[in-house]
Amino acid sequence: QVQFVESGGGLVQPGGSLRLSCVASGSDFSLLSIAWYRQAPGQQRNLVAGITSGGTTHYPDSVKGRFSISRDNAKSTTFLHMSGLEPEDTADYYCNVWGPLRNWGQGTQVTVSS
């Protein structure tokens, strides 16, 4: 069963940047499509970036041009590069399979505030 550990969140000013990391274990990472999701207080969890095993990426309009997902199969790690951060990006960020979901990790908190 694949497990995920997210890190890299923190407090950042509007317009700033962060890079989140997600380390996977317990499965053949290179075969998995992986996505980053976020959940703001009182809201549902939504996908913000996805990357297939072949490296094809997808972003919703809300983050397109500001967020970038990448992966390092040798390290079983997925990254989410976030720039031009806005207060609306404040949320807990999680990674998981882009497809049938597995157990969620603990997430990493991102707060965008001046």
What does this structure look like?
- This protein has 114 residues and is mostly beta strands.
- The protein is built from no helices and ten strands.
- The strands form two sheets. A six-stranded mixed beta sheet has the order 2-10-9-4-5-6, with no helix packed on it. A four-stranded antiparallel beta sheet has the order 1-3-8-7, with no helix packed on it.
Summarize this entry quickly.
This protein is an all-beta fold and 114 residues long.
List its salient traits:
four-stranded antiparallel sheet, single chain, globular, mainly beta, six-stranded mixed sheet, 114 residues, 47% strand
Number of helices: 0
Strand content: over 45%
Amino- and carboxy-terminal Cα gap? 40 Å
Radius of gyration, whole Å: 13 Å
Main β sheet profile: 6 strands, mixed
Helix-strand topology string: EEEEEEEEEE
Q: What strand line-up does the widest sheet have?
A: 2-10-9-4-5-6
Q: Which secondary-structure class do the elements indicate?
A: mainly beta
Report the principal-axis shape.
Answer: globular
Mean pLDDT: 96
The count of β-strands is 10
Q: Level of helix content?
A: under 10%
The stretches of 5 or more residues where confidence is low (pLDDT under 50) are: none
